[in-house]
Amino acid sequence: KNYVFAPKNLGPKINSENLEYYPSITIDSTRMIFNRRVGNDEDFYESERTDTGWTEAKPISGKINTNFSEGAQTLSQDGEWFIFAGCGYPEGEGSCD
What we know:
Elements: E1 19-25, E2 31-38, E3 41-50, E4 53-54, E5 58-59, E6 69-75, E7 82-87
Antiparallel strand pairs: 1-2, 2-3, 3-4, 3-5, 6-7
């Protein structure tokens, strides 16, 4: 089978001039979380899908985003579990845990 990789820009509410990658979407397609890299800091951003499209992406709420880099995340299909790698954390066992 031939697979054509054809990413699409989701518009200014999601995409910015910064690097953005690793999107995860809930099984009902109503919530998306992705990485945005600003300078050397990687943080998680989220958006909700409404009847009119995706909402403006905002940093994920809570204490997940730090001055260190967070990335390589996965979101459970029901949106209840969020697992990610944290890089440079002082309490970590390696460079990215």
